[in-house]
Amino acid sequence: MANIIPITSFSAPELDVFARLTENQLVNRADPANAMFIAESPLVIGRALDGGCVPLSFLMETKHVEGKAAEILSRCPEDIPVYTAELDVLTQLTGFKLTRGMLCAMRRPALKSVAEICTNARRIAVLENVMNPTNIGAIFRSAAALGMDAVLLTAAGSDPLYRRASRVSMGTVFQVPWTYLPEDVSWQDTLHGLGFKTAAMALRDDTLPLSDPRLEKEPKLAVVLGTEGDGLANTTIEHCDYTVKIPMSHGVDSLNVAAASAVAFYQLGTLHNKA
């Protein structure tokens, strides 16, 4: 039987982890072994559990304990606190209506190395300083759907386990292997050492079209996408093996990075995997 703990006040200290700790406090860089993240909605929580993430506590509407949360709770140790409250209490928590009535505080999994993440990978995405959690989540969803084997991120970008990012990803951040690129060495050299060629997505005239057969024939290819607005740094483009752009029409000069990722992943991931 689940350890049900009713909550009647939004100020209850048990809600701090869900309502009053910032994302940076949850990450807890000073003590990584105790770092946490919050998963929202039954789908995302279920995929986090599938990915081996360890639950610490739940917050949900009372009615869900024996409803849509029952299957998830049956997968967890019985002593995990399950804080419950009525909707009028929980809606004081900003954005609660987006959670499908359920939140879960989870232990942050230890990150693997780039070499571990890229073992057996043929198509990966590299995200350079992508800052918007919504874009991160959308990119991961496209990566999962369209044939990317892994995602690598620079440390300056947004965190895939931020609540908005994991929610927008529909939990695919727990399905697609990912890690951060090293800051003390050239990540291009790291990927080249692992056998990858790199393809920078950039708006330049001296680029290959996305459909160029040379890209499809590469046995290992990293698709490199840049930050919102400015795109990739010039030094990054110069160190990549290819520069690639998506053909545009009607005077449109570019796509949002999440939309561009979906087009690129379809062409370079899904089609390659069907070959």
From TrEMBL:
MF terms in GO: RNA binding; RNA methyltransferase activity
Stored Pfam families: SpoU_methylase
InterPro entries from the UniProt entry: Alpha/beta_knot_MTases, Ribosomal_eL30-like_sf, rRNA_Methyltransferase, SpoU_MeTrfase, tRNA_m1G_MTases_N
GO BP annotation list: methylation; RNA processing
All copies of domain tRNA/rRNA methyltransferase SpoU type, residue ranges: 124-266
Keywords tagged on the record: Methyltransferase, Transferase
Name of the protein described by the UniProt record: RNA methyltransferase
